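Provenance

Sequences were taken from public entries as deposited. Structures were produced by running a predictor on each sequence independently, with no templates supplied. The record for DUF1269 domain-containing protein from Planomonospora corallina is shown for reference.
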Amino acid sequence: MSNLIAIAYPDVTTAVEVRDRLLDMQRQNLIMMEDMAVVERRPDGKIKLHQGAGLTGLSAAGGALWGGLIGMLFFMPLFGMALGAGVGAATGAMADIGVNDDFMRQLSAKLEPGMAVLFVLVVRSTPDKVIPEIRPYGGHILQTSLSNEEETQLREAMEGIGAR
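Predicted structure for DUF1269 domain-containing protein:
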C-alpha cells in the first residue's frame, strides 16, 4: 500500500529541487514512488500542476510501437506508427493515475500565493537515509496518509526535533 505525503514549500523552485533529489534517491533504490507532482499557487492565485510522470509520452511511444507492428502486417508501418502514436498519446493524456488532481488542487488552493506543494505517493522507502537528504530544504508537512504515530515521527524528523 502506498502512502501519500504532501509537503509545502515557500516557492516552486524549492519543491522542484526536492522532487529532483527524490528522483535521484529512487535511482539509488532508497525510495520507490508510485507518483509525484509539484503544485504551485502562482502570485495571481491560479493553481498550476507539474506532473511527475509523463503518461502522454509513454503511451504515445507504446502506441507507435504497436501501431508500427500492426502496420507491417498491412505493409503500411509508417501509417500504423502515426495512428498508434496518436491514439496512445490521447489515451495517456486522459488517464489519471496516482494522486488525484482535484485533491491536489483543493489542498493547494489553501496556500499563500507563490508557495508550492510536493505530493509524493511512496510505495516504500528507507527513511533514515531519505529524510536527512531532504531535511535541509525545510518544508511543512500538510497532510499524509500515515498513521498518527508515523506522521508525528516524520514531522519530528523533518523539523529536526528529537534528533539531538
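The chain has two domains: 3-53+98-159, 55-94.
Residues 55-73 form the longest helix (19 residues).
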